[in-house]
């Protein structure tokens, strides 16, 4: 940890994020495979989700290789915001790509918990930034 990083900065409230100043988020370090999703990698930029407690917030990059597919719809108990930075993501499956909805760079989604979404695939690959969080109580 450098002098500009702190764990669970109180300025973030209940979200366990650490203070990080500018850094190269696109460098090749820190990428890990997303379990259950062949060809999809993530890089956590800040925060964490505690699924058991239903708390937390994460900002991450998701990098989809050309041909990566999530062949089934997904659903999760956290809220999610997704912005496609580059490339494109398609809603549907490669087997039925003539019926797929292609989402180009610049496309944004904001969904509450428990919304079924997908399946997805990316023919040429894409880069997403995702914000995942459990909402604080009202």
Task: Provide an overview of this structure.
By secondary structure, this protein is mostly beta strands. The protein has one domain (34-133): Jelly Rolls, CATH 2.60.120. The chain has no helices and nine strands. Strands 1, 2, 3, 4, 5, 6, 7, 8 and 9 form a nine-stranded antiparallel beta sheet that branches.
Please describe the biggest sheet, giving its number of strands, its sense, and whether it closes into a barrel: 9 strands, antiparallel
> What's the CATH architecture name?
Sandwich
Radius of gyration: 16 Å
**What fraction, in percent, of the residue positions are helical?**
under 10%
- Supply the number of helical segments: 0
**Number of separate strands:** 9
The stretches of 5 or more residues where confidence is low (pLDDT under 50) are 1-6
Query: Which structural class fits the helix and strand makeup?
Result: mainly beta
Total domain count: 1
How would you describe the shape?
A: globular
Key traits:
globular; mainly beta; Jelly Rolls; 138 residues; disordered N terminus
Describe the protein's topology:
Elements: E1 32-33, E2 40-50, E3 55-64, E4 69-70, E5 79-91, E6 101-104, E7 108-111, E8 120-121, E9 126-133
Antiparallel strand pairs: 1-2, 2-3, 3-9, 4-8, 5-6, 5-7, 5-8, 5-9
Short recap of the structure:
Helix content is 0%, strand content 41%. The chain is built from no helices and nine strands.
